[in-house]
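Q: I have 81 residues here and want to know how they pack in 3D. Can you give me a structure?
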Amino acid sequence: MKLHCEVWGTPDRPPIVLLHGMGGTGKMYRPLGAELEENWYVIAPDQRGHGRSFVADPQTPAATHPFAPEHYAEDLHETLE
């Protein structure tokens, strides 16, 4: 899974992740990211199915549905790695 991320600051600073809700994207944090970048490494991903990130096939069976909460958690973990 590749997620598009808005990023501010540099990786040598402490990271902070900004997650949007169901109707948002990472770009909604551009003003805040610009304010925080002096002291933080700010990461604001477009979560799966939003913005410029992967959009799943709506015909996917519920048992393997790509929008299950555990998939969002896995995406966050991989983004931080």
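Q: Anything worth noting?
A: Strands lie at 5-8, 15-17, 41-45. The radius of gyration is 14 Å.
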